[in-house]
Amino acid sequence: MNSKKIIGITGYSGCGKTTLLKKIIPLMVLQNIKVGSLKHAHHDIELDIPGKDSYELRKAGAQQTIIACDKRYALIKETPDIPANLKTLINQFTDVDVILVEGFKDEQMPKIMCHREKNQKPLFVDDFTIAIASDEPLITSLPVLDINQPEQIVNFINSYLFKC
């Protein structure tokens, strides 16, 4: 994809992608790894608040709107005719060591597939799947990580991305 270090966390809805990310991100931060996160949403998202100036300026036709305060800023870019692709989104990140991508399961990036027995879904594995995070033993040629052991998953990610 490019020179940025990227790992996808993929799987079906309800398999624990966000829950897993909420556990592994702080562990990586404790290791002084600067983490960026990118989440795919399957529905139209609205980040701004109707009635606020920034919302009104965007609705008036601004193609890009930045909302800023002293501690953070957000860029909202309208893409009605050309949906943003993963490469474009990844290129928005600066000053991070790794980008953890939630979703985008069909993209060509290294990914860890989340699987939970209760979902009763088949494994979604492709040529870019590097491991499966699961709550049950699986028969597969891929490494199977315990989805309930975030330290194990962080160690796997670090060894995969930062091979020394």
State the low-pLDDT regions, or none. none
For the record, give the distance between the C-alpha atoms at the N and C termini, rounded to a whole number.
21 Å
Strand content: 15-25%
> Which term fits the overall shape?
globular
Average pLDDT: 88
Helix proportion: 10-25%
- Strand tally is 8
Topology pattern, helix = H, strand = E = EHEHEEHEEEEH
**CATH topology group:** Rossmann fold
What is the class in the CATH system?
A: Alpha Beta
Superfamily at the CATH H level?
A: P-loop containing nucleotide triphosphate hydrolases
Radius of gyration: 18 Å
Strand order of the largest sheet: 2-5-1-6-7-8
Report what the structure shows:
The strands form 2 sheets. A 6-stranded parallel sheet has the order 2-5-1-6-7-8, with helices on one face. A two-stranded antiparallel ribbon has the order 3-4. The longest helix has 14 residues, at 17-30. Helix 1 packs across helix 4 (150-161). The chain contains 4 helices and 8 strands. The protein is an alpha/beta fold. It has a single domain, classed as Rossmann fold (3-Layer(aba) Sandwich), CATH 3.40.50.300. The model has no long low-confidence stretch (mean pLDDT 88).
